[in-house]
Specification:
CATH class of the largest domain: Mainly Beta
Structural class: alpha+beta
Number of helices: 7
Helix content: 10-25%
Low-confidence stretches: 42-50
Number of strands: 20
Length: about 325
Amino acid sequence: MVSFPTGRTDEYLLDDYSRTVIRAVDAVAPAVVSITVTHGRAEARPLGQANGSGFVFAADGLILTNSHVVEGAPRVEVTLSDGRECGADVVGRDPDSDLAVLRISASDLTAAVLGDSRGLRPGQLVIAIGNPYGFQHTVTAGVVSALGRSLRSRSGRLIEHVIQTDAALNPGNSGGPLVAGDGRVVGVNTAIIAGGNGLSFAVPISTALMVVPSLLRDGRVRRGYLGIAGQSVPLLRRVTRFHRLAQAGAVLVTSVEKSGPADAAGVRDGDLLVSFDDAVIESLDDLHRALTDDRIGTRATLGILRGTSRLDVAASIHERR
């Protein structure tokens, strides 16, 4: 005959794993919101259908979510954890990192506590909270399955240092928090791979902390611009040997915008871009990383290969509009 400990049965049934998840959910759930986007009469979705998730990160009404959740939305409604509904303004969006900040006017808000995603380790417990398919405050748990992933955003740029997890995500989870066992937010859930069971991704909170100040100040993130279109290509070994290059690839310039910075510098279609000042350029992603906001208004030396010649040209870095 099996005997059970005396006292509260529910406490006996809860193991350490369950207690950790419950404590984390209790800590962050009051900050999680459901986001409904209305795109106009012709495309209006049924009332109450959640398009995404988000979470309050400042008690004065600031909400963090995904850029793609509110892209092109003339009207955004937010449902708080206590059932209150209110309109939201889009303060700013950054499609390149898939992050956006909303603002609501409401009292007695609970803000989530932000953690440090840089301290995450593979195998660590994480919890995702969101509103998949409109089911509010759905909780899934898993582990960090990998770190340092790169994910292509809808704008074409790479989101770097992405967190990979096996915590189940579904449509509607986008923008919700990924939480560590201590209840602190370490990521913003952003994507799943169709057909890839057990593969979910979150933008690290360290990226959000870099992006949010620009969104609050300017409504966007400023990035540098050269006025070229290109593609990443491999370099022939004889080319790298001839020019003494320690790299395997470059950016092939496929078009140059008329009167743009690169055009003014003398860059031509068919040039191979191999360096940006002292930085080696092996791919378009390398070039994107070099065109940071602090380079706007400065000049950079572009190393290019044209035919059998290696040329250095000076280009002014403009702001991308």
